[in-house]
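SAMPLE LOG
Freezer: B-3
Tube label: C17
Construct: single chain, 138 aa
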Amino acid sequence: MKKFKTLEKLIRFKSKMLDERKQFVGKLIARVSDVEIEITRYRTELANEQKAALDSVDAMMACTEYTALVIEKIERLERLRREAETQLQREQDKLMELYADLQSHEKVLTIAKTEHEKALEKKDQNNLDDLYGRKHSF
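STRUCTURE (predicted):
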């Protein structure tokens, strides 16, 4: 039906937007996970280096500078993770809004189509009633 085409196009468009948003959220989740893995790797590496540095004074001095650099890197990664988590939460909220909006449009379309079908059935029935009434009135 022509009168439903615009709404159907809108639903397809919003559905595509929803799919794209899901993909983006998936990438953000993967990014947060990757950053967490990297943070864990740096912390483990730092702990191992600090343990190994206990064996000599020269190693301790070198480890002090190394420790400062690794801690700085970990802090940057933690900031990055927090920012990504904040963005992820915003994107998930947008995803939920878009999903609710899409469901609303789909519901409107379903109701409109049902009402249209009922109106057509009623019109057909009235036409049959008129036709049947005319045949028997002669």
